[in-house]
Amino acid sequence: MNRLLLAAYPKSYRSRQGEELLACLAEAYPGRSWPPPREVAALACAGVQARARAVVDDAARPWWLDGIHLAAMALAALALVPYLQDVWHWALHIDPGEHAIAFHFSGWYPWAGGPTRIRLLPYGLLPLGCLIALLRGRAWIAVPAAAAMIWAGATTHGRTLFGDEGKAGLGYYGLGAPLTARDLVLSGTLCAACAVLALCRPSRLRRHSYRWLAPVVLAMFMAGGLHIISVSPAFQRGLFVLEVAALIAAWVATAATGDHRWLVPVAAVAIVRTQAIVVRPDAFMQSFPDLVVLLLLIAPLPALAITAQRRQGQALPE
User: Fold this and answer.
1) DSSP track, the chain
2) Residues of the chain above pLDDT 90, percent
3) What's the domain of life for this entry (predicted)?
4) CA–CA dist 285, 293 (Å, integer)
5) Which residue has the higher pLDDT, 316 or 129?
6) I need a surface site. Which of 98, 205, 259, 271 has the fewest CB within 10 A?
7) Of the ranges 39-43, 62-66, 251-255, which is most confident?
8) What pLDDT shows up at residue 172?
9) What is the structure's pLDDT at 204?
10) Which of the listed ranges 61-65, 135-139, 303-307 does the model predict with the highest average pLDDT?
11) Structure confidence at residue 132 as a pLDDT band (50, 70, 90)
């Protein structure tokens, strides 16, 4: 099990010092397949820092380009969140029946037994396709997918294709920020980011392995297999935990390097979700005061900026 901890470190580190680290763990904790939680947290933190330094040391691309790339992937994942169940059911030809996403009508597919209208594709395929293209550094494929998201949210002519999903239905993101496909700030920002990336040379974009899609597939299985919709408390708690973990990882990476690239995706997600709260503050916020939610969204921005500035100030005397 100790080898799982090595996944937090970059490949170059694992090849050089991986066996040495495993030997140290085996010597420090004999007979244990897993170190104490405190040691696990420390190793995971060190792994994030090592990955962050490896990213910053790579001079093949400027920090702002990497930041925009990360922001586009974060926005694509954010847009996909409410439709995880829908895409999973469509891919496996599952009729969710009474567990359908809370839209105006069941509106499922030709193989389903539900009533009313039929639609051909789930809206979630658009952000999913955009996310896969961005992971592989194919921004020119992500641009039309993001543009189709704008079209689907701005017009009602695509009902036969995507149904009303994301237009009149619920698209609920953690911390009380209601977003639907009609909210064009999300899709518009995503499309703009993809367009900037597409204008750059494709070789300059970082390419990630398809293994990065494993968490997405797992989330789809959890949402579709267990019929957990995005408005359920369990879904929201899980999303909140992931957001907190992502913010902590961004803080650790920024503190280790003093680089601003991780501030870009945090800012993009915060801006998109904050405007949704400002536009519709009473939509799904009965359990959260407006001011508290806004502070939770905005507070990480100056914290990351101050952290980067301090790290750069410490690096100068060195």
Assistant:
1) -HHHHGGGS-HHHHHHHHHHHHHHHHHHSTT-SS--HHHHHHHHHHHHHHHHHHHHH-TTS-HHHHHHHHHHHHHHHHHHGGGHHHHHHHHTT---GGG--SSSS----TTS---S---SS-TTHHHHHHHHHHHTT-HHHHHHHHHHHHHHHH-STTHHHHTTTTTTS--EETTTEE--TT-HHHHHHHHHHHHHHHHS-GGGS----GGGGHHHHHHHHHHHHTT--TTSHHHHHHHHHHHHHHHHHHHHHHHHH--STTHHHHHHHHHHHHHHHHHSTTSS-TTS-HHHHHHHHHTHHHHHHHHHHHHHHHHTT-
2) 13
3) Bacteria
4) 9
5) 129
6) 98
7) 62-66
8) 46
9) 77
10) 135-139
11) very high
Residue with tokens 């847009």: 79
Backbone angles phi, psi at 280, to 5 degrees: -130, 75
Name 172's bridge partners. 178
- Out of 35-39, 75-79, 152-156, 259-263, the most confident range is 75-79
Question: For residue 66, what are its two tokens?
Answer: 């990497």
Closest CA to 297 of 256, 317, 268: 268
Q: Is residue 102 a contact partner of residue 170, using CB atoms and an 8 Å limit?
A: yes
Q: What is the largest CA-CA distance in the chain?
A: 69
How far apart, in whole angstroms, are the C-alpha atoms of residue 79 and residue 20?
42
pLDDT at 110: 66
